[in-house]
């Protein structure tokens, strides 16, 4: 009887997920409450994330644009890719 050895899953911190989503770790913690981002809470109230659960959550939030006659269907990510420009939030007039 052969047993398969499963690799242990490395859990992500809120900072790891924030780095992947290009947002602040506070936003990640808020999304656990408001948008149902799945997480694991440890005994010391630390929030960790299973990468497979995070990717599944992102896939469920992906929107599809209806194709026209000349365009094939395109899936748009729920979070746009970061363009590398840092925005401060203040606009000067």
Structure description:
There is one protein chain. By secondary structure, this protein is of the alpha+beta class. The protein has a domain at 12-76: Arc Repressor Mutant, subunit A, CATH 1.10.10. The chain is 30% helix and 14% strand. The chain is built from 3 helices and 5 strands; from the N terminus they run E-H-H-E-E-H-E-E. The chain has helices spanning 14-21, 25-34, 51-60; strands at 12-13, 40-41, 47-49, 63-65, 74-76. The strands form 2 sheets. Strands 1-3-2 form a 3-stranded antiparallel sheet. Strands 4-5 form a two-stranded antiparallel sheet. The longest helix has 10 residues, at 25-34. It is extended.
- How much is the average pLDDT? 79
CATH topology of the domain at 12-76: Arc Repressor Mutant, subunit A
Oligomer: single chain
State the share of residues found in helices, binned by percent.
Answer: 25-40%
Structural class: alpha+beta
User: Main β-sheet, in a few words?
Assistant: 3 strands, antiparallel
Assign an overall shape: extended
Enumerate how many helices there are, as a single number.
3
How far apart, in Å, are the first and last alpha carbons?
A: 73 Å
- The fraction of residues in strands falls at 5-15%
Question: Going across the major beta sheet, what is the strand order?
Answer: 1-3-2
| Overall CATH class of the domain at 12-76 | Mainly Alpha
The Rg value, from CA coordinates, equals 18 Å
Uncertain runs: none
SSE string, helices as H and strands as E: EHHEEHEE
Number of strands: 5
CATH architecture of the domain at 12-76: Orthogonal Bundle
